[in-house]
Design goal:
The complex is a heterodimer of chains A (about 260) and B (about 270). Chain A has about 260 residues and is of the alpha/beta class. Chain A is built from eight helices and ten strands. Chain A is globular, with a radius of gyration of 19 Å. Chain B has about 270 residues and is an all-alpha fold. Classes of the chains: A alpha/beta (about 260), B mainly alpha (about 270).
């Protein structure tokens, strides 16, 4: 019998502080957060509060100054194929490879056979709604389709943890809504552990099991965690959605105002 | 003569503005032919009606001189000699520039160590090295090869380094997140991202090579197209000079067009960054 305390601590940030060397002020101070296995966790906060920094530490791209980040009790020492990343822009797509080849990239590095790569990529492209686009090159795809490719590339790898850094921030509003609903559906089907960063409250409510609201930086950390138990699939028109939106917005806007005051000083 | 600075692929030197100018459509081809024909007519008329002088040969005189030197076997030999020098030096210089550029771009200690040399030599024109090269290597092939390699290597090197620097951080991080080792990041991300930059550098290097080899053949040679132009002055053969210059222009243009075609065909995928 596994104690429940251990099971809730799948991903853990323990009193993490972080500062970029060139700047003296700390981005994060005493940042503590625990993620459960297979939960969809939303990190919400004003820009510049250190959301991406937190994600980068979990990805292994950045290292904490103090405290530590761990997965299943194992401290993170660098990037690894158990934690794949969906980036905000499309710069991570490889322009000389086809869509299918981009999706297969992680499998190629993992030494998966060509036939299996093809088969798995075809399957996952269908899941993200890109069936029939596998032969196209990224330059031939729209912004929304490129983000679907990134999601497919992350899903196909069987990594337990998906790190998503504002993946829909750069696509137009209509496409963003569609992508949010589809990601919610895909997640319900695949159930990975997700850390998703956004400053879009509606996006957070549509996607997240729990929503962590961050303080304005510097010295940022988690201000409040809101549990979102609205039944899935969620609808933006529901009264319960509106209630939750108002509650989260109050908490976020305090931090946004605080960030603006700090900037104007 | 050259500005050994990095040019972005797709920019004025590597991209659309130079591509397909004569092959866009029948209308463009017709316009280009009209332009060439018009220029030849004006040349012919000014040389026969306005400046009638042995120092300014007409189109027909120039063509006749080309015919004579060609029949005598002088022209084909000099063309092949010059082309060989350009291609051999260009190939060596491109290879060296790409390899050293990738190394300097990827390893910061190597970059810091060699950057002063790079920034010194790339501003010294190849022509300046004709004298020392002649003292070291004589007036044979080694001197020309040295000079053409010199004319190519720095521009390819600088562009390759720019390509490596251009690799987006997310691209490297993506590969690392999928478990790529450093050599895999280089093989699958850095190298392919740099290819269009390397090719752009090679294209400029090709132009530099053509210019340099002529100077070298004039000042330190006894064959080649540069030597042909220079030796013609002794006999006042301005028609031969003009003819050779026309050939140089045609070769340069052809080389650039072939390069453009190859760049377009082979690297179309790489353009979409």
């Amino acid at each position: 019998m596994v104690p429940s305390a251990v099971r809730t601590r799948y991903i853990a940030f323990d009193a993490v502080s972080f500062a970029y060397r060139e700047k003296q002020t700390a981005v994060l101070t005493d940042f503590t957060l625990e993620l459960k296995r297979r939960e969809f966790f939303l990190l919400l906060g004003p820009s510049g509060c250190g959301k991406t920094t937190a994600l980068n530490m979990l990805a292994g791209f950045e290292h904490p100054l103090e405290g530590h980040v761990s997965v299943d009790g194992q401290p993170i020492t660098g990037p690894g194929p158990d934690r794949v990343v969906v980036f905000q822009g499309d710069d991570s797509l490889l322009g000389w490879l086809s869509t299918a080849e981009n999706v297969e990239f992680g499998l190629l590095l993992a030494g998966v056979s060509r036939a299996e790569r093809k088969q798995r990529a075809g399957q996952v492209l269908e899941t993200v709604g890109l069936a029939g686009h596998g032969a196209k090159h990224p330059a031939e795809l729209s912004g929304g389709m490129k983000q679907r490719v990134q999601i497919a590339r992350a899903l196909v790898s069987n990594a337990d943890i998906l790190l998503m850094d504002e993946p829909f921030a750069a696509v137009d509003a209509q496409t963003r809504t569609i992508l949010q609903d589809e990601l919610a559906r895909i997640w319900t089907e695949t159930r990975r552990t997700v850390l998703f960063i956004t400053h879009d409250i509606a996006e957070a409510i549509i996607l997240g099991d729990r929503i962590g609201i961050m303080r304005a930086g510097p010295d940022s950390n988690i201000k409040e965690i809101v549990t979102n138990d609205l039944p899935r699939p969620r609808s933006r028109g529901d009264a319960s959605f509106a209630t939750m939106y108002a509650r989260i917005e109050r908490a976020v806007s305090e931090e946004v105002m605080s960030a603006m005051r700090k900037e104007s000083r | 003569m050259k500005g050994a600075s990095a040019a972005l692929p797709g920019g004025a030197l590597g991209g659309r503005s130079l591509r397909g100018r004569f092959t866009d459509g029948p209308r463009d081809i017709a316009l280009a032919l009209l332009s060439i024909a018009g220029m030849l007519v004006i040349w012919q008329l000014t040389s026969t009606l306005v400046f009638r002088s042995i120092l300014f040969p007409s189109v027909t005189q120039t063509a006749a001189a080309l015919g004579t030197t060609a029949r005598a076997g002088i022209l084909p030999r000099d063309i092949s000699v010059t082309l060989f020098r350009v291609l051999a030096g260009f190939a060596l210089g491109s290879l060296g520039g790409a390899v050293v550029g990738l190394l300097m771009g990827s390893v910061s200690i190597v970059r810091r160590f060699f950057e002063p040399y790079l920034n010194f030599f790339r501003f010294v024109t190849p022509i300046a090295w004709i004298a020392p090269a002649t003292i070291w290597f004589g007036i044979g092939e080694t001197t020309k090869l040295f000079l053409v390699v010199y004319a190519t290597i720095f521009i390819v090197l600088v562009n390759t380094m720019a390509g490596v620097a251009h690799v987006h951080r997310d691209r490297i991080r993506m590969a690392q997140a999928f478990g790529a080792r450093p050599w895999q990041v280089f093989r699958y991300v850095t190298l392919p991202t740099s290819v269009p930059f390397i090719v752009t550098g090679m294209r400029i290097g090709m132009g530099n090579s053509f210019m340099t080899v002529i100077g070298a053949e004039m000042l330190a040679g006894n064959n080649g197209l540069g030597y042909l132009i220079y030796s013609s002055r002794i006999f006042f053969r301005s028609d031969v000079m003009f003819g050779t210059i026309v050939i140089l222009g045609v070769f340069g243009l052809t080389a650039d067009r072939l390069f453009d075609l190859a760049q377009h065909r082979v690297l179309r995928r790489y353009r979409a960054r």
